[in-house]
Amino acid sequence: MAIPAQLTGSAPGRVNLIGEHTDYNGGFALPLAIPARTTASLRVRDDGLVVAESTAPGTEPARFTVDSSPGDVTGWAAYVAGVFWALRDAGHDIPGADVSIHSTVPSGAGLSSSHALECAVAVTLNELHGLGLDRTELALLVQRAENHYVGAPTGAMDQMASLYGQDGHVILFDARAMTAEPVPCDLAGAGLSLVVVDTRVHHEHVDGGYGARRASCEEAAALLGVETLREVQDTPLAEVLGKLDDDVMVRRVRHVLTENARVLDTVALLRAGRAGEIGPLLTASHASMRDDYEITVAEIDVAVDAALAAGALGARMTGGGFGGSVIALTATADAERVGAAVSSAFDQHGYASPSVFTVRPAAGAGIEESQ
């Protein structure tokens, strides 16, 4: 069957409800796809070139060959080049293309804009060329692109959320089993809203902080004689930590293991129809990221504190850290007031005004149209 000349696919950004820095430790996370999406329109070329353009401000068109190697393409276009590279490296002889990108996912806000871009390109190439890859295979290929082409040592949670998202559901991601299980999450039906505060503090996973924490966890796992920290999840926490004599490593491991437990507790409450009771788990997650994993910044902590003081049921940083966004679970009637309180706190501290909006669990990646 002849392939179409052009196809458009899209993939959403994500908010991680709870479960941060657990994925590369073989653990659990609970992300949801959000309505903001990235679209990728691809038109096949027969000259071995990829010509990529984006409507995002400050981006320049890029041209590269389909057989580019890591390091050949930098900047925003590396995310596009990385997907082509990962697919071809896996044995898929895909040709060049004109690639047009448009996104409503805020960049650098901890909402996984880079993975939305990569997943949009990947799902479109998969359909365009009839590769027959399932969504888990696509997620792993996108992770490989991110790790080895872009140079960011991320896990697979963001990709799985973008590819497996469902309306009205969060996704229980088990990184060890590489499974994505939908969990009903009807916040609106429970009179709840999920407020997102984009602090506008830009973050990059290719910076050293993320990688340093991943390396610390890997070193701890080696000292404990296991492949990943997930393998000691059911061992009493005090027993695990007692085998480590480095204070920083102890705190990193404590975050990961207690965060996994918070994810599972959140899932249990959601399945029981008790979404209004998950707030304290979100807040405890933030305290763990702030104190044990040390990945928050001043603006993030101010946003969380202001949201809680204004009546949020729970609040936490979402994403890899060192900037990005905060989420606050509120009664729907309180959502506007909580957002205004955070904005006021930022003004009092002399910070740039944040962007405040609400999100709901939305659909995952898919094909938008074909021509």
Fold and architecture overview:
The longest helix is centred in the C-terminal third of the chain and has 25 residues, at 247-271. Helix 3 runs antiparallel to helix 4. This protein folds into 2 domains: 6-184 and 362-370, 2-Layer Sandwich (Ribosomal Protein S5, domain 2), CATH 3.30.230; 188-359, GHMP kinase, C-terminal domain (Alpha-Beta Plaits). The strands form 3 sheets. A 6-stranded mixed β-sheet has the order 5-4-6-3-1-13. The model has no long low-confidence stretch (mean pLDDT 95). It has helices at 77-89, 113-128, 135-150, 157-164, 208-224, 237-241, 247-271, 279-291, 298-309, 335-349; strands at 6-16, 28-29, 31-44, 49-54, 62-65, 97-103, 169-174, 179-184, 192-201, 314-318, 324-331, 355-359, 366-370. With 371 residues, it is α+β, with helices and mostly antiparallel strands. One of its GO terms (cellular component) is cytosol.
Keywords:
Galactokinase, alpha+beta, 6-stranded mixed β-sheet, galactose metabolism, single chain, 13 strands, 371 residues, Ribosomal Protein S5, domain 2, magnesium, 10 helices, globular, Alpha-Beta Plaits, 4-stranded antiparallel β-sheet
Give the topology, please:
Elements: E1 6-16, E2 28-29, E3 31-44, E4 49-54, E5 62-65, H1 77-89, E6 97-103, H2 113-128, H3 135-150, H4 157-164, E7 169-174, E8 179-184, E9 192-201, H5 208-224, H6 237-241, H7 247-271, H8 279-291, H9 298-309, E10 314-318, E11 324-331, H10 335-349, E12 355-359, E13 366-370
Parallel strand pairs: 4-6
Antiparallel strand pairs: 1-3, 1-13, 2-7, 3-6, 4-5, 7-8, 9-11, 9-12, 10-11
Helix pairs in contact: 1-2, 1-3, 2-3, 2-4, 3-4, 5-7, 7-8, 9-10
